[in-house]
C-alpha cells in the first residue's frame, strides 16, 4: 500500500522542525520570524508533496523553501534597513549554494544548529516556566495545546509564556549561538535543568489525576539524546541521559493494572525495561569515563545501584547512602538530605534515617513538601509508632497536589489506625 504523504510530512516535520527553526533563527536573528518561515515551508510541503511526491532530501527541501520565503518577505518589507539588505544577500548566497546547513562557524567547537537553539531557548533572561514552554515548543515539537495539557495550565497561559519569551529574546538581542567558556557552563546547567524538569513532570506528575505522563518522559529523553550526540564530551549531559534512561526503565512497573502507584520496593523487576537499563548504564559509563562527578552523574550512579539489584534486599544501600553524601556536598539541598535519610534508613536502620529527617523538619524550603512527612511517617511506622505515623501520613496527604498520591497517603493513614501495614 502506498505511503500516505501526509503521514510522511508529519514524521519529517517532527524530525526536522527544530533544526529548521534553529537555522532560520540564526540567519534572520528573529525567533518569531523563523517559526513563521518554518510554518510557511510546512504549508508548502502539504500543498505540493501529495502531488509531486516526497523529495529525496525532505529536510533540505524545507530549508530551501523557507529561505526563499524569507527573501520574499524581506523584499516586501517597506522599511528595509541595511541589516535586512545584508540578510537578503546572505540568504541568497546560501540558497545558491544549496547547503541546508548554511554556514557553520568554524570557530564553534560544537557547531550544531540545534545546540544553538537549545541554548537560546534556555537563556537565563527567561523564567523557568518560559524556558520549559519554549523548549517543548521549538525543540520537542509540541503544539501550544500539547504543552498546556502536559503541565495542566491553560493554552492562553502557555501561549503568553511563549510570546513573552520570544519578545524577551528579541528585546535583549540574544544571539543564536553557543556561548563559550564559563558562560557556556552556566547556560548548560540551565539547559539540563529544563530537560530534567520536563522528564520529572512526566515521571512523577506533581498535580492532576495521573501518576505518570509517559509522553513527557519521551520528549525529555529525545532532547537528552540529542544533547548527548551534540555534546559528547560533556559528562553531565551523559549523566543526565543515564539518569533519565534508568528511571524511565522502571516506568511500566510504577503503576499497577488499576492505575495505582507501585513503590520501588514493591515493583516487579521483571517488568523493568532491560534495554533501557543497558542504555542508561552505557551513558553512565561514558560520563564516568569523562570523570563525571556532577549532580546528574551521581544521581545516575544511585539509579544504577537499583537497576543492577535483583531485589530490594540485594540493593547496595551503603553505596547509595555514600553517593547521597557526596551529592549533598556537590549540590547541597534539603531534598537531597531527605533522600539520603531514606538510604541510611535502609542501610543502617530506621532510627538512623529518622534522626536525619528530624534535622530537616524546620527547614523552610520543605515546609510544604509532602514527601517530608511521608518519609517520616514510613520511618515511624517501621519503628512501631503507629499513631505518630498516622498523623504524618495525614499531614502529607493534606500537602499533596496529585490526586492519586493524596488518596494513597490517606489510605496509609487509615491503615495505621486499623493496624494494617
Structure, briefly:
Helix content is 69%, strand content 0%. The protein has helices at residues 5-28, 31-52, 58-76, 82-97, 113-121, 128-138, 144-151, 155-171, 181-203, 214-230, 235-248, 274-289, 295-308, 317-330, 334-348, 350-358, 371-382, 386-399, 403-418.
Fold and architecture overview:
69% of the residues lie in helices and 0% in strands. With 421 residues, the chain is an all-alpha fold. It has five domains: 5-97; 112-230, no CATH class; 232-250 and 271-308; 318-366, no CATH class; 368-421, no CATH class. It is elongated and about 75 Å long. The chain starts with a helix and ends with a helix.
SSE layout:
Blueprint: H1 5-28, H2 31-52, H3 58-76, H4 82-97, H5 113-121, H6 128-138, H7 144-151, H8 155-171, H9 181-203, H10 214-230, H11 235-248, H12 274-289, H13 295-308, H14 317-330, H15 334-348, H16 350-358, H17 371-382, H18 386-399, H19 403-418
Helix pairs in contact: 1-2, 1-3, 1-5, 2-3, 3-4, 6-8, 6-9, 7-8, 9-10, 9-11, 10-11, 11-12, 11-13, 12-13, 13-14, 14-15, 15-16, 16-17, 17-18, 18-19
Which key terms come to mind for this protein?
DUF6596, RNA polymerase sigma factor (Sigma-70 family), 421 residues, single chain, sigma factor activity, 5 domains
| Average pLDDT over all residues | 84
Compute the number of strand runs.
0
Shape: elongated
Strand content: under 5%
Q: Span between N and C termini?
A: 57 Å
Order of helices and strands: HHHHHHHHHHHHHHHHHHH
Number of domains: 5
Number of helices: 19
The Cα radius of gyration reads 25 Å
Spans with pLDDT under 50 lasting ≥5 residues? Answer: 100-111
Q: Profile the largest sheet.
A: none
Helix content: 55-70%
Task: Report the structural category.
Answer: mainly alpha
Protein name: RNA polymerase sigma factor (Sigma-70 family)
Domain RNA polymerase sigma-70 region: 18-77
Domain RNA polymerase sigma factor 70 region 4 type: 119-169
Pfam family, one: DUF6596
Amino acid at each position: 500500500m502506498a505511503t500516505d504523504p501526509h503521514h510522511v510530512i508529519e514524521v519529517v516535520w517532527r524530525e526536522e522542525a527544530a533544526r529548521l527553526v534553529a537555522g532560520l533563527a540564526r540567519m534572520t536573528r528573529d525567533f518569531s520570524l523563523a517559526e513563521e518561515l518554518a510554518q510557511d515551508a510546512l504549508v508548502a510541503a502539504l500543498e505540493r508533496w501529495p502531488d509531486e511526491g516526497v523529495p529525496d532530501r525532505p529536510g533540505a527541501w524545507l530549508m530551501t523553501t523557507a529561505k526563499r520565503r524569507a527573501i520574499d518577505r524581506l523584499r516586501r518589507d517597506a522599511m528595509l534597513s541595511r541589516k535586512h539588505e545584508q540578510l537578503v544577500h546572505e540568504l541568497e548566497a546560501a540558497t545558491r549554494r544549496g547547503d541546508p546547513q548554511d554556514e557553520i562557524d568554524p570557530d564553534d567547537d560544537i557547531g550544531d544548529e540545534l545546540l544553538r537553539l537549545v541554548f537560546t531557548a534556555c537563556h537565563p533572561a527567561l523564567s523557568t516556566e518560559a524556558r520549559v514552554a519554549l523548549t517543548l515548543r521549538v525543540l520537542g515539537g509540541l503544539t501550544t495545546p500539547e504543552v498546556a495539557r502536559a503541565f495542566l495550565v491553560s493554552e492562553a497561559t502557555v501561549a503568553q509564556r511563549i510570546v513573552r519569551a520570544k519578545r524577551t529574546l528579541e528585546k535583549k538581542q540574544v544571539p543564536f549561538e553557543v556561548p563559550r567558556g564559563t558562560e557556556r557552563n552556566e547556560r548548560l546547567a540551565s539547559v539540563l535543568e529544563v530537560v530534567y524538569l520536563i522528564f520529572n513532570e512526566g515521571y512523577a506528575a506533581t498535580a492532576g489525576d495521573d501518576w505518570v505522563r509517559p509522553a513527557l518522559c519521551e520528549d525529555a529523553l529525545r532532547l537528552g539524546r540529542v544533547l548527548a550526540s551534540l555534546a559528547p564530551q560533556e559528562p553531565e549531559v551523559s549523566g543526565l541521559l543515564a539518569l533519565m534512561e534508568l528511571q524511565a526503565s522502571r516506568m511500566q512497573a510504577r503503576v499497577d493494572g488499576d492505575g495505582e502507584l507501585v513503590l520501588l520496593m514493591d515493583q516487579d523487576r521483571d517488568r523493568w525495561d532491560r534495554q533501557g537499563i543497558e542504555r542508561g548504564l552505557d551513558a553512565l559509563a561514558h560520563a564516568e569515563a569523562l570523570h563525571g562527578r556532577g549532580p546528574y552523574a551521581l544521581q545516575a550512579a544511585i539509579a544504577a545501584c537499583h537497576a543492577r539489584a535483583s531485589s530490594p534486599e540485594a540493593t547496595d544501600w551503603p553505596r547509595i547512602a555514600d553517593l547521597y553524601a557526596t551529592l549533598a556536598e556537590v549540590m547541597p539541598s534539603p531534598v537531597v538530605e531527605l533522600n539520603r535519610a531514606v538510604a541510611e534508613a535502609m542501610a543502617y536502620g530506621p532510627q538512623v534515617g529518622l534522626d536525619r529527617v528530624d534535622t530537616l523538619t524546620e527547614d523552610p524550603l520543605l515546609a510544604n513538601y509532602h514527601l517530608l512527612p511521608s518519609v517520616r511517617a514510613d520511618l515511624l511506622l517501621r519503628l512501631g509508632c503507629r499513631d505518630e505515623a498516622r498523623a504524618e501520613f495525614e499531614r502529607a496527604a493534606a500537602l499533596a497536589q496529585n490526586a492519586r498520591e493524596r488518596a494513597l497517603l490517606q489510605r496509609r493513614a487509615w491503615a495505621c489506625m486499623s493496624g494494617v501495614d
